[in-house]
């Protein structure tokens, strides 16, 4: 949490709005999510604080941030979404993880699916990993997160894909460990 707040403080610079949002009540934070003219850092701060507080008014803003091109924003959104405990979160994360056009930004949705352990988690991780097992896949980190997630979830449906993942140099060690986890 402190890393997120420090990053956002640096983005805010001397803006007094940072301190206002840092201490604002939930209704004020929720209102800022739809206020015109606020910079991205301000919306992220409001959504992050609401999410950690379990206020579901942050859901849409956090899902948008989970799909952002900046990894730090995605990670903060994933943290807040996990704390939010909204039943829509797993479906949203699965949609982002399995979107072929957004694979470059799928790392945090994949990790979030693993943390959520929702019914959508294993099918989404299988679908994502299945398309990332080509020999020269540039998104191997997303594939690795899928392998690690499938190992953590220990679902036997993952066996075939994990065996295939063992033939990929960057995935082999994690796939072997995940297969061991399936045996337990």
Automatic annotation (TrEMBL):
Keywords: Lyase. SUPFAM superfamilies: ARM repeat. Gene3D superfamilies: Leucine-rich Repeat Variant (1.25.10.10). Coiled coil: none annotated. InterPro entries: ARM-like (IPR011989), ARM-type_fold (IPR016024), PBS_lyase_HEAT (IPR004155). It comes from the Bacteria. GO terms for molecular function: lyase activity. This is Adenylosuccinate lyase. It comes from Streptomyces virginiae.
